[in-house]
Design the sequence.
């Protein structure tokens, strides 16, 4: 049984994590800025023992989560997105002391999509690459963390490229070394991502559609199980997916 400290407990994803907990996980403490019964409004107040912190709050609360995690020697799953450069540095610094799992998307399918995108980019050479991401109207960051994950996977294969989110301010042909990233916001759409490779007379599309928030919650719980006994370091979904292969070999 892995004991969890859930941050962002009253949010949509916090509630999804609570609902997804089964026999292998138990939430021993909850934190949220929205005050309610049995929920702390500050992580520094938490006294209950826990094995892993799962953070689905907001990127600007990451520093407080990491400070608590390092002080108490507790591994942390950072499932928020939209981090600033200094916040990303703080995550890397904390990973020198504790195990930190960070992913722009906790879906296994999305992370397999990133791997496929990287493979396609390496094989398709000079194909143009465009990414389209769609989310509900209340999403704050754009482009989404997942879109940036996909772009990063492409760049690992092709080298650094320019990220272009607005073409309205120029009048010129499409440069070769760019990735177009388009953000669509509206309604209640949970999340849809598509990466398109445009060649001469042909087009390849890889697409992922999220049909429910439970898939992100289940991914976060898998991540918590994965890092519960890991040494200090920065981990992500690639490490988790690699562990599946190792289990099959055994």
Sequence:
């Amino acid at each position: 049984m892995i004991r969890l400290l859930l941050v962002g407990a009253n949010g949509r994803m916090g509630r999804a994590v609570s609902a997804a907990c089964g026999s292998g996980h138990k939430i021993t403490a909850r934190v949220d800025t929205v005050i309610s019964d049995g929920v702390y409004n500050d992580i520094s107040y938490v006294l209950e023992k826990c094995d892993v912190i799962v953070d689905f709050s907001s990127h600007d609360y990451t520093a407080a989560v990491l400070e608590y995690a390092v002080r108490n020697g507790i591994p942390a799953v950072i499932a928020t997105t939209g981090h600033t450069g200094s916040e990303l540095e703080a995550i890397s610094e904390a990973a020198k002391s504790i195990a930190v799992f960070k992913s722009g998307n906790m879906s296994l399918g999305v992370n397999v999509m990133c791997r496929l995108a990287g493979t396609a980019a390496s094989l398709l050479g000079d194909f143009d690459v465009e990414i389209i991401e769609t989310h509900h109207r209340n999403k704050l960051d754009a482009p989404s963390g997942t879109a940036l994950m996909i772009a990063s996977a492409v760049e690992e294969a092709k080298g650094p490229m320019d990220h272009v989110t607005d073409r309205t301010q120029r009048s010129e042909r499409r440069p070769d070394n760019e990735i177009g990233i388009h953000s669509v916001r509206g309604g209640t759409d949970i999340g849809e991502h598509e990466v398109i490779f445009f060649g001469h007379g042909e087009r390849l599309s890889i697409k992922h559609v999220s049909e429910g928030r439970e898939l992100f919650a289940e991914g976060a719980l898998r991540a918590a199980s994965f890092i519960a006994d890991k040494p200090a370091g920065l981990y992500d979904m690639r490490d988790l997916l690699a562990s599946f292969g190792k289990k099959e070999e055994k």
